[in-house]
Amino acid sequence: MSFQTTAAHSSRIKKSNPAGARRPCSAFSSLPRRKPIARAGGSSKQQSQDDYSDDDTPSSSSSDPTTRLPDAGLIHIHLTDLTLGDVPQAILHITTHTFTPIPPARRGSSSTRTAEILNFRRALPPVATVSHVQALLHAPTAVAREIAELTAKGTIRKLLIPGRGGAGELLILTRDLEGLVNSSTTLEDGVKVAYIKLLREQPTALKLPRSSISQDAARQLMQAGFITAATPTWTAADVFSAPGQGARGTLASLTSSASAARGGVGE
Questions:
Q1: Which segments within the chain are labelled E, that is strand?
Q2: At 174, is the pLDDT very low, low, confident or very high (cuts 50, 70, 90)?
Q3: CA angle 225, 230, 236 (to 5 degrees)
Q4: N or C: which end of the chain has fewer CB within 10 A?
Q5: Cβ atoms within 10 A of the Cβ of 61, count?
Q6: Averaged pLDDT score across all residues of the chain
Q7: Distance of alpha carbon 49 from its chain centroid, rounded?
């Protein structure tokens, strides 16, 4: 007779729970787990130094929106971007990129000829035609409006060369025009001061009244190429109708021809 007792058999239904039927909640849950290895004091100190940049700002995760970007200096796109934004910038671009530099070697000309070319380039005024500026900025209406505003403010000056049509409408920065006047060796100091003052008082004028300057000052300015005669005494038809008179020319015609490449303002 056995004295061992067992629990009564339960009639409750038990569900089978095979080991392979349960799916892991993560693909990495079945991998063996390892405890993090504690680093030595020196390693943690080195890591703490690496976590800080030169400007003592802690580096954070790239996903953190408050991450401070490192200072890489001037953006490279600003150095290579040739997009022109306004009229003065377009004028500077035209005047600084008019000629290519002369190669130092194998230029095919003597040093004397090279010096003549460089002096000729230096003598040309920094002017740009209105059509050239409009072609660069691709907005004729906005460019015309900006030219009118900057001319009224005295930032730029509009010049006119008689007999050239649209190609005779030139733009120049006021500071460059005043620099040409001050650097001229033909004009006297009093004439320079009076002419610059007159230009500042009438920033939009294309023609200057005869009473605004003296006869001697007008002669000096005309010889220097800064002004031309607004009403020439001869026309292009006189060259064919009267060859003798057209060949002799007048002071106005000679000055107009001389200032065609240099630019003139108004009268």
A1: 128-129, 156-160, 169-173
A2: very high
A3: 95
A4: N
A5: 7
A6: 72
A7: 43
